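The data are passed on as follows:
___
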Amino acid sequence: MARGDFILFEEFAAAILNGAIAWDLHASDVIKLGIVDNTATEPVASASAPDWSDFSGNEVGTGGGYSAGGITIDNCTYTEADGVATFDGDDNSDLVQNGSGFEDGYWGILYDSTLAGNNAIGYLDLGGPISEVAGPIVITWGVGGIFTVSITNP
């Protein structure tokens, strides 16, 4: 895996298909990217029923520009066109350089903080350690969205 790769959790992909998660974005849903250090087990796509609580014990420290629970991803959308469903949200530049910030970010865990279980969607390889102390951190999603799901009919 390389810095900047976003990987969907397989459980999340299965939940979309079988309706286990009511993945129906509403304007009130709050999607977050929680940043964790490398003292936790590295996230893997095959994690069983991942949620934010699986990772939050290894969340980076607060004190700089990072708040507990993570960065809110604004203006999330889930659209479909020509057999491709796309999830997207705004890029984020809230993590400005801060001498009191964290210095040990390795992964960003994308999760829906609105759902009761804080279901995890996927994770972003930050190529850590990244540091607010060293400079600003900008999260820039791909031009094609955060992730896509292609629909193929037999």
Observations:
- Helices lie at 10-18.
- The beta strands are 6-8, 31-36, 71-73, 77-81, 84-88, 92-95, 105-112, 120-130, 137-139, 147-150.
- The radius of gyration is 15 Å.
